[in-house]
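Lab notebook, entry 289. We have the chain sequence and a SMILES string for zinc ion, and the next step in the workflow is to get a structural model of the bound complex before anyone spends time on docking refinements. Request logged below.

Task: model protein plus zinc ion, output structure tokens.
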Amino acid sequence: MTFRKLPGKRRYRIANPSRFIAVMMLFILALTAVIVALASNRGEPSDQSSVAVTPTVLPTPTPTPKPINVPDGKKVEPVVVVLDAGHGGRDPGTTSPFIKDFYESEVTLDIAKKVEKYLTDRGIPVIQTRPGEDHLNDSIEKDLLARADIANSNNASLFVSIHVNAYEGKGAASVNGMEVYYLNKDTVYTGFTEERFARIVGEEIKNVTGIKFNGVISRSLSVLRNTEMPAILVETAYITNKEDHDRLRSNEFRDKTALGIANGIELTLQEIGAFEHEGELYVFKEVGE
Ligand SMILES: [Zn+2]
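Result returned:
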């Protein structure tokens, strides 16, 4: 017998046997995987939830904060208002001539806390110099310096000290109303003065409470002198005047006074150009020499 090459039929030869084996092994492995997968799916409910989908985990991109364009000669700082509840601890401040155990430091703390609530509700950050009953230092002089230090070390945008007035001179009983003190230190916000700050806050308190506004008064008080930002001191009413005394006793008057102070602070922040950037409030301050 002779072998004949059949016409049209080609003979194949495996050129690279090891490569062929490797390809076949891969094919068998893949086939096995498919069979195993089909077998494990059998009998399970065919709803979509049974199909395990492995989510592609992408690295969380670090958000790039947008820079704030700071004008020449300015610096940018986050807004924070420092509230200073006058007196406290061993220093009760002015005391009631009409009833026992009613004194300034409890009124100022209550009003300061109410102001804080109004401001934080509006997204304006607040720091209290005296968050509780206690005084800051046994020496009155050092106590006042400590209050200014809190404002300075926190780069406060604005500082508001809250007090209750008393007058014991001639005709004391008829002296009443509210006053706001300022000093006019060096300008921190271009074109803005502490006198302007005092006037805005005084007008707002008058609008909300209806109390007599005796005006703004320039006086070199420790907390006004030693703070490095616009600072005012509000004398909310006279504890020595019967009508004011009863106001100071009422929660309604304290709340309205607090609302007036908060409104005044908010208007002032607008006037000094406070702006929101990525959810936070900022101000530009002039760079000191
Ligand atoms: Zn006082």
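Notes for the group: The chain has one domain: 74-286. Worth checking against the assay data. The radius of gyration is 37 Å.
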